[in-house]
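To fix ideas at the outset, we first show an illustrative case, written as a sequence plus integers encoding its fold:
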Amino acid sequence: MNSVYTYEKLAEPMRAIRQFSVQLAFRRFFWVTLGLALLTLFYVVLVPSSERIDVQPERSMQTTAISLLAKLLGPNNQTLKLTATGQNADRKDQKSITAQGATCKIPKLDKNNPEIMEFDAPPPPLGCSGDPHWLELDMENRLKLTDYGETVLSVDALKCTAEFFERLDDNNLQWEPSKSVKIGDKLDKTDYFLLKCDHKEESWERLFMNMVPRQKFIEKSKDVQPAEDWSGLNVFFMGFDSLSQQAYRRSLPKTVEFLEKELGSVVLDGYNIVGDGTPQAFIPILTGQTEEELPMTRKRVKGAKYVDEAYPFVWQNFSQAGYTTVYGEDAAAIGTFTYRLKGFKNQPADHYTRTFFQYAEKFAKNIRCDGPEPEHKVWFKYAEDFMRKYPKDTRKFLLMFHAILSHDDINQIKLADEDFRDMLRRLKTDGYFDNALVIIMADHGNRFAKIRATQQGQLEERLPFMSLALPEKFRQTEKGRVAYENLKKNKGRLTTPFDLHPTLLDILHFPSVEMLKTPQDPAKNRELSLFREVPESRTCEQAGIASHWCTCLSWEDAFKSDQQKELSTLLAEGIVKTINDYTKPERKLCSEIRLEKVISAKRLIPNEDLLKYNGVKDADGFVPKLEGNTKATFFTYQIKLQTQPGAAIYEATVNYDVTGPELTVDFRSISHVNKFGDKPHCIIDKNYFLATYCVCYDKV
């Protein structure tokens, strides 16, 4: 939603700070002060004390009077204007402080920053327990005894049954009848099955997630002829939830070292998120669009479509090109396309791990464990076996996203570092990455932990880990050499999830050398291939990044002087009013909130090039002319505030236009940055989106 607050003559002293001469400012201040004094007197005399607004002692008469005006006149008065738009508003309508010709300066963060290291700790144990597994599968999917099983079991006394299951839909499974199995049997009916065994007076069971190559997919890869401009590359794409680039370096140092020093990965320092949460990270990657730009798929909305009916997923392009596909997530309860969205009508990929975790989350006592073993080892093995079990000449597209270890804990992912590194190293050593684009990434940084409350934490949330590696043999070709050089140039450029979309499509139709060397125009295209050079002049606006998420902006403390505190407090009141207006239709369930305090306020300062830009020097429009002397006419503030009841902490971006003066609050820029727990329990089923802002009365 978008809320606009317009304070006319009463706010002119603030406007005078920046815009008017000392003489004019003094003149207006005199008359406004006189008016404010009369208004305050009127308020004290006529308004009952029970109806008065709480005003902090340090706030000036100017701020007090503006608050009173909002209270006395209300939103229908011409002095205070409030408008609202839904989440489906066009992104182009969002106000931005960026301008053509500006240069994005990527923040350089220290992974060992003391305020961040305060939260760094040894990882909590997974808590895996129990006797070692009795049985396992070999590379041909045949049942065999484990080393432990060979020492304690008698094959003649062992009786086992297998129950295979597969996807019926995104919320239901289809089970095959239980069948008796023995050592040496090939268990390849589906990728997933439950094995139960009895041995004398003991029993054992294990849930298997096992890659079973399908002949029909192998044949498809042979039957579909690749395009003449095909790159010849597979795609191996793996990610973790809630890890910034610096968090990757802190928690997965061995993996990062392998990627950079052995695999030749390029880590994108300027990879900037474009929205809040995992869907807003992956939808642009997989479709080139935002959720708001695509047809409605939210499960709570009547008539919403399934995501595969509405979204042009890039893996469909790969499937049509003869690729065998894997799409995997390990957290069925909070799936990217199934938690809030309607999910898939048809199975989205040839291998789809949601099917396994639908049951595993019910079966497992500890979802982080496969009995005595870490579950992430099963996860890595499934990905590795996909590359190994299918023939090398079978085209492969794998996208797997892991959330269990890192979604709710900032340290536990450390336990997977060596296992992840070792899996990647084995695939490289054995040649499975010789013809693969390897993408290792995260969706965003930590969002809810205390680390996010720090200055660096805010930046880290917006700068997740993103790395790409082209195989060494491919880099030795003319196309590969140019693409790799461009990729390295883009390491320090502003990049986004949108850019991954054309980059993936390039694998199917790789650009010519001439095209790779042709400059991309960020003013015409929001998504830019990472195999071609991304211009240094690219702005957040051009890249589809709202100022709320844009990290290449220079912030300064806006809560130092009394005047700054007054203005920041006023902005915070506007934010609270916006939230209350949004929850008002559900006031019977959700309490009205009030401003408790302003925690911090920062002001965004446009960079020098932005203000100097006044055209271009060359006929093609590539060389900016920086000879202007534009004055800043509006400022962007980022306010962090606490409200009561509920002790919610919000972070919001607002714009202050000194020429109005006008205060603009974009509802989409408001983020709830601490955990709300069960405070909104009364509204979640009715309207999930209000949960961020609702405090139920029984929690007041």
In short: The domain at 2-97+553-699 is CATH 3.10.450.10 (Nuclear Transport Factor 2; Chain: A,). The longest helix spans residues 22-46. Residues 263 and 639 are 42 Å apart (CA to CA).
